[in-house]
Amino acid sequence: MPAVRDTTRRPALPGLPKALRDDVRLLGDLLGRVIADHRGEDFVQRIETIRALAKRARAGRSADWQKLSAYLAELPEDALTDIARAFNQFLNLANIADQRQAARQTTWPDAVTAAELQDLRVELVLTAHPTEILRRTLIQKYDAIAAELDRRGADVKDRLARLIAEAWHTDEIRHERPAPQDEARWGFAVIENSLWQAVPSAMRELDRRAGETLPVRIMPFSFASWMGGDRDGNPSVTAAVTREVLCIARWTAADLFLRDLAVLNASLSMSACTEALREAVGDAAEPYRALLRELRERLLATRGWALTGAPPTERVLLRDAELLEPLELCYESLRACGMGRIADGPLLDTLRRVRCFGATLVRLDIRQHAERHTAVFDELTRYLYPDAAASYAAWDEAERRRWLLAQLEDRRPLFPAQWPVSTDSREVLDTCAAMAEYDGAGISAYVISMAAQPSDVLAVALLLKEAGFGWRLPIVPLFETLADLESAAATVAELLSVPWYREYVGDRAQVMIGYSDSAKDAGQLAAAWAQYRAQEALTAVAAEHGVKLTLFHGRGGAVGRGGGPSAQAIESQPPGAVGRAFRVTEQGEMIRFKLGTPAIAKATLSHYLTATLSAAATPPQAPDTAMRQRMGALADSSLKAYRACVRGADFVSFFQTLTPEAELAALALGSRPARRTPANDLDGLRAIPWVFAWTQVRLMLPAWLGADQAFAQLLADPAAYDALRRWPFFAMQADMLEMVLAKADSTLARYYARRLATPAQQAAAEALFARLDKLAKDVLALNDAATLLAGAREVRDSITVRNTYLDPLHLLQAELLARRRGGNDTEAVGQALKVTMAGIASGLRNTG
After folding, report:
1. How far apart are CA 155 and CA 143, in angstroms?
2. Around Cβ 3, how many Cβ atoms within 10 Å?
């Protein structure tokens, strides 16, 4: 960040758009002034010295790396946190400027018709995976800064300086881990502050593209959430928590629609109406207001009820139709009476919000591990059949399936009233009971983690039946590991061959593809190929059985967890896999980056909608036999190289020494533990901290390890590489790999190794650094390019600018880790370390 008296050249921003350059410089100047007001100009000059050393070191001078390291090592403890915060704050302000630039880049279709949108469905599922580093308080301040940049005006600098000062004087680190209810409130705030405006604005853009006001029944956008519903490995998410989150959602929906009604009440003062509306309100002089007054009373009753948890009265709105019908009656009356212009005003926006969000605001997915369902039925069968040789857990798949189907077709209750059920099993049953309340309103699906066989799905169906679930909720098997992906199509084919299940799903089924655990299990390239083939096979199975399949993509923000540009991800799916529905997770910090303001959310919706329409209308060509064989060989060699490294005897210890994996636990990022099990091994570690920790040291290992072997093979056959690049799937893998290589930095990673690792571990690290550097050279040779991201200059230059502020954070982090692990674990060291982790995550953005 530029100082008040800047004695060095500012960062060059040549490849960035002028509007972005101007925003970055303005915000950086103001931040420098705020810090000078607080800590003095000498402190700002100290920050500037660090930045100047980092810039010279980045130019390739090893002596300057040493000077920078020595300078940071001598920093007094009372300066550590604010030094780290200064660089962290600049990177967060740069993100605001980046988001404003992204909001300018929309991709709406040139023309669209109501028929094309009729059954199209783009559903984004908000998850609370712990990669959102910022506190909600700071997010709100950054949103206010973005709003000021949009408004500008004569005194914009004064207003921005005040907001930046508020951010600077606010502690950016959470000191307490959020509860699931807090995570849900954060998700609901995204809807209130962003999506509530973005969705009707996006629909009006589609009206313009269609050349007419689209019918109100058309709503291609939908939102669901895992916040308060994802209990896989998270003991904090209980049935009581799920009930509370559902109530908070209903309260928020009622409150937002009450605000809409206040606007509509001021607008709809006219008296002419249809007979249908007159029948509903009697002889009221202002029939529209009369109907809205009744709806307002019901929304007030609903909002009050949602706070109490008491049984609902008849005045409470429980279903979307109760909210939709009176508003549609007003709309139809206005249009019939020649007041279409009025009908297509705020009333149309409200109707579209009802179609999108409904009375429950956002539908909740419930997720649980398959083993928890197995444990319930094992406990039950041991109680019911005490003399049997084996219980449910010991039965083979055929026996489980026979028993489950028999119970599903039996009308008698299964669970004995006096059954002495364990606490864990009672929690599973209570969750199903909570889901069944109010006919399952507000529940969208039940996702089964680590699903591996048909009985895993039938077990959930039986649990829901016994809970009295009144409709056929989608039961979604999640195939996560490499082995599960490879057997996914066979498992679904077996399920669809079961008459009971085939009748249950009707003509629609849903399957979830896990990106995170498969990549941790097999490496990014091998996992991506397995995911592609699984989708191909699942699409074929669904077609064979006459079922419309919705593939639910569990993608993270990082490339090592399936991250990448939304549109390119959709366009790279197998032919026919997208269909007319696309369901995908938006996780952690990516929710803020892609949906955090109305403008950026509208742009994101445009990317998803346009890509889904395109994939449905003109699916990409399938790869030919030669491409498939080549890709299979590359994936096999990548898998072997990846597993040979990460499954070594000392690799977990090496990982924990080189990265701040253990220290990440001190960051209160989310309600969920970092490990599924207490075991100190790779299998027990969740994919998020695995990727997050490698990103902190800039080695980015999960996204490229194994791919280096595959690309070395391609270097010997450039013609094969050129042919594969014409395939959208491979093109995306190659593009994302190149972006990862541009962000990776063996020099910084080497510094961590020298500062933290043993001599033996340093030798192992050097082998990895050599592989990373060779991969970068191989990619350059294959692309016949002098620099990485030669065709994406804006991205490349953004990384270059950020490096000047990231480098000091990395070196300071390594210094702080060494101090902490050496016994100097003071509060100042711990706080500064947390700030460096937050700053690196913010600066690199797609970290989880």
Report:
1. 18
2. 24
CA distance 9 to 374: 64
123 bridge partner residues:
222, 583
- Cα–Cα distance for residue pair 612/566, rounded to 1 Å: 10
Q: From start to end of 602-658, where are the E strands?
A: none
**pTM recorded for the entire structure:** 0.92
- Rounded to the nearest angstrom, the gap between the alpha carbon of residue 711 and the centroid of all alpha carbons in its chain is 29
Q: Residue 412 class from Cβ within 10 Å (0-12 exposed, 13-18 middle, 19+ buried)?
A: exposed
Using one digit for the tens of pLDDT, what is the confidence trace for 591-604? Answer: 888 998 899 999 99
Beta-sheet strands, E only, within 623-674: none
Which positions are catalytic?
A: 129, 520
Q: pLDDT tens digits, residue range 273-330?
A: 999 999 999 999 999 999 999 999 999 999 999 998 789 999 999 999 999 999 999 9
For 24-130, strand residue ranges (E) read: 121-127
The radius of gyration computed from the CA coordinates of the chain, to the nearest angstrom, equals 28
DSSP string, 339-396: -HHHHTTHHHHHHHHHHHH-TTSSEEEEEEEHHHHHHHHHHHHHHH-TT-S--GGGS-
**Can you give the length of the chain in residues?**
848
Letter string b/e over residues 530-566, b meaning 16 or more CB atoms within 10 A of that residue's CB: bbbbbbbbbbbbbeebebbbbbbbbbbbbbbbbbbeb
- Provide the H-helix boundaries in 233-345: 239-267, 275-281, 287-308, 320-336, 340-343
Listed residue (462, 555, 539) closest to 504, CA to CA? 462
Tokens 């933290």 -> residue: 756
Within 647-784, where are the H helices? 651-658, 661-664, 687-696, 701-704, 707-715, 718-725, 728-743, 746-756, 759-783
Would you state the structure tokens that stand for residue 538, as one six-digit string? 């699942």
Each residue of 241-251: b (16+ CB within 10 Å) or e? Answer: bbbbbbbbbbb
Tokens of 309: 């948890």
Q: Which residue has the tokens 């500008």?
A: 152
Please state which of the ranges 492-501, 559-568, 639-648 shows the lowest mean pLDDT.
559-568
**Contact status, residue 148 vs residue 160, Cβ threshold 8 Å:** yes
Strand partners for 435: none
The Cα-based distances of 414 to 326, 381, 400, 410, 737 in angstroms read: 42, 10, 15, 9, 52
